[in-house]
Structure formats: C-alpha cells, structure tokens
Amino acid sequence: MGSKRTTSRRSWSEPGLRARLVALMDTVFPGVNDVIERARALGAAWEDVTTPFVASTEDGPVSQVSVMRFTMLLDGTQADVGCLHAVCTHPGHRRKGHYASAMRAALAFCDERYPAALLCTAQPELYEPFGFRVVDEHKVVSDVAARFDRRSMRPLRLAEARDRAVFQRLASRRAPLSRKLGVTGPATVFVVNEPDRPLVYAEDLDAIVSMEIAGDPLCLYDVVAAELPPLDEILRRLPAPVRRVELFACPDGVGLAGGAEPHVFVDGDDALGGAGASRLMVRGPFPEGPLMLPRPFRC
Ligand SMILES: CC(C)(COP(=O)(O)OP(=O)(O)OC[C@H]1O[C@@H](n2cnc3c(N)ncnc32)[C@H](O)[C@@H]1OP(=O)(O)O)[C@@H](O)C(=O)NCCC(=O)NCCS
C-alpha cells in the first residue's frame, strides 16, 4: 500500500475524482452515495456546495474533510461560517496522520475566509486538538394556549415537483429563524436531511414548517419562509390543538417565550455517521448563552 502523502484542495469536477471520493465516503459511511443521488434528484447537487480537502497516497484518495459555506446570522450580524463535514479515512489507511493532514488543509482554507467554523459530531475528541470546542445546546419549551381553527396546512413532499418548486422559491429567500443563530443556506443541506421528515406547507402564510406532533408537545424544527409567521399562526393550523411547544432553535425569531432546557440530538443506528450524541462544535467567535443549530443544518 502506498504511503507517500499529498494533501490538497480538490474539485468535484476533476476527471475521475468524483467516483473515487464517493467510493471512499461510501466505504466509511455506507449509503452516502444513495443520499447524494437522492438529493440531486430533488434538485440539490452536493458537488455545488462542498469543497473537498483530500489526502492521497499512490493508491489514490485515502482521506477527506469537506467544507461548506453556511450563510448565517450570528448575534444579529451576517456571517459566513465554514461547516466541516464528511470527515473520513479509508479503514486500510488509518492512524497514519491522513485525517490530520486533510483537516489542516481544510482549516487553512476556512481561516482565510470565515471568522468561525462549526461541525456536528459524536466524537468531540477528534476535533478538540484542532481548536474546536463543544457548545451546549438548548431547546425552548413553553406551554401555549393557542387558538385553534383548522386553517389549512398541508403535507409538503420534496419528491413532488410542485412542492419542490415551493421549497426552492422559499429557500432562496428565507428569513433566518433566529437573529442570534440563524442559518439561511445552503438549501442543499436541508434537502439532504429533511425529505423523509414531516414537512407541512401553509399556503396563506407561504411558509414551510418542519415539525412533529406526537400528541403533546409540538416539536418545531424549522420554518422556511420569506417572512416568518407568528408562532400563533402556525399553531392555529395544526390538525389538533397542543398545549406545549418545544422549539429546537433560538426563540427570538418566532417570538416564543419559554424556558431553555439542555438538549442533545441523538442519532440512531440508521444515521449515516453512525449512532451517538451529535454535539455542536465551533472554532472561533460564536454567540454565547442558550442556542441551537437547527436540525436541517446538521451534517
Ligand atoms: C476518525 C478518522 C477520520 C480518523 O482518521 P485517521 O486518518 O486514522 O486519523 P489520523 O491518523 O490523522 O489521526 C489524527 C488524530 O486524531 C485522533 N484519532 C484518530 N483516530 C482516532 C480514534 N479512532 N479514536 C480516538 N482518536 C482518534 C488522534 O488524536 C490522532 O492523533 P494520534 O494518531 O497522534 O494519536 C477515521 O478513523 C474514520 O474515518 N473513522 C470513521 C468515520 C468517522 O468517525 N468520522 C468522523 C465523523 S464525525
């Protein structure tokens, strides 16, 4: 097996590279190729939004760290943030420093462009040596006494062309869900993460809502709209009244007054990156106090 390493920023459009990188990722995260292809069929091309940093030996690519540009609002200020993801080394090439080399290249790229970088992981110890720190996350929980008058809200399915057009129109001009920590793009990540999760569309509000209702409470994950509707308007359109709302985001955008409770997303065995607690890690300046990176933007 080859041992001489070169590490550099690469491009998905290089002849032959795409197949090799996808094969590498699919070896480490079985099923990722299907996820990428499915998102592409839904109008969201992975290659358009991610930059790979690749360590190669004579055998070809053996490790990669990819970077996406998240457009965010942090403490009320527009900021581009580097999101690191798809971190992997081929099982036959581990513990030889390939990941560390790809990571250094990715961080040099980020440091030139972005004031901060973030990632989600079940293995914080891999990233602490590179300056990342775990940020505790909080959901916001509140009792609500909502009016309830069955205004319409219908399921939205990204697999259907009509609904995809609605999503693309709104995602391209979406308001941040929070001014403290809001993510407005890339929409590709939403399409990769959310197609099998319940989404609803309120036509009169022109808003897509990512939410789950298992009796009480209502779990609210995201709202994709050019103008965020008041929470009350969402509640009055539910199929049944709820008395409690759990918001998995900062509450300023939807105007929810409630208590912050620590929350850790726990991925199941079916998660691409494997089961475990998904912790938000950041590097560089980041808002303080209770916050959460919304579920559609975790990768
Ligand atoms: C995690 C992974 C990318 C590491 O790749 P690698 O090329 O073997 O890593 P390196 O040799 O560059 O290791 C660099 C440092 O990372 C840490 N590290 C690497 N593998 C580790 C492991 N299995 N457990 C704990 N720390 C580890 C060590 O600090 C290591 O430094 P050291 O060798 O001097 O002790 C690789 O094991 C992998 O692909 N795992 C499966 C996918 C995965 O878990 N990705 C991260 C998802 S968030």
Automatic annotation (TrEMBL):
GO terms for molecular function: acyltransferase activity, transferring groups other than amino-acyl groups. It comes from the Bacteria. It holds the Pfam family Acetyltransf_9. SUPFAM superfamilies: Acyl-CoA N-acyltransferases (Nat) (SSF55729). The lineage of its organism: Bacteria, Pseudomonadati, Myxococcota, Polyangia, Polyangiales. This is N-acetyltransferase domain-containing protein. It comes from Sorangium cellulosum (Polyangium cellulosum). Residues 7-154 form the N-acetyltransferase domain.
